[in-house]
Amino acid sequence: MAKQTDRKTLTPNMKASLLMEVSGKCPLSRTPLIERVKHEDGSLKKVVNQYEVAHIYPLHPTEIEVELLSGEELLTDDIDSLDNMIPLCKPCHKRYDTQKTVAEYRGLLGMKKEILKLSSFVRLWGGQGLYEDVVLVAKKVLALDEGEIKSNVLSYKALEVSKKADKTLGLPSLFKIEAFVVNYYPSIKKVLRELEEAGDISCDVLYAQVKFAYLALKKEGFDQDKIFNHMTDWFMGSVALGDRSKAEVFTSYFVQNCEVFSDTNSK
Ligand SMILES: [Zn+2]
Prior knowledge:
By secondary structure, this protein is mainly α. The chain has 2 domains: about 10-115, no CATH class; about 125-255, no CATH class. It has helices at about 10-20, 65-70, 90-100, 100-125, 130-140, 145-150, 160-165, 170-195, 205-220, 225-240, 245-255; strands at about 35-40, 45-50, 50-55, 85-90. A two-stranded antiparallel ribbon has the order 1-2. Strands 3-4 form a two-stranded antiparallel sheet. Strand 1 (about 35-40) and strand 2 (about 45-50) form a beta hairpin. The termini are far apart.
């Protein structure tokens, strides 16, 4: 029987970073891992953890688990390191620890592998000061009212997205990006121009940074759908754009503007 006492003690920072890696959701059931309990007036009362940190490869494998996972890939030789840990909701953790399948093991391993590849990208991108620039832009764009946005849309003929999309993007994503571009591209462009004229940002630097981030993801072998999603995750997390579609608006802008999905080698 596994003892709970001889595992690594995780600091609050370690737990927070593990939670961030899975975007606060259980990777097996998509259940939110944190519950925000609010006062009647809407202010935050407390945060309740609904998760436990699981070892992807078991810390104390049973004979059955040793057999089941023999020959399977390991993420690290140090089973009790963060590289082998992932947060799960309590029911999934219980099930995973008592009746895991090879498919689930491979699923979690694949997810964590991608997370580890991404973490170097996030560090790289996060350290560039890009974050402050994007926050400025996002604030101004999201403050525009419907009339301002609608008075300034792009013609469908001017869309560049489908020229750069490959099969890994998928038609629904392509249509979604195109719709965001048609409706938001001119407004975002205008905001960027205004901020640059006011000396608040440099568009060239911003574009170069986004391009650099795109190339870093591409180098890791992510396909277009994943790159779009990872960049959107970054906008959501770092720029604190609460809802996903708002973040997608910005990723879409950079697709149309050639920083994302264009290749330096293409004509
Ligand atoms: Zn779960």
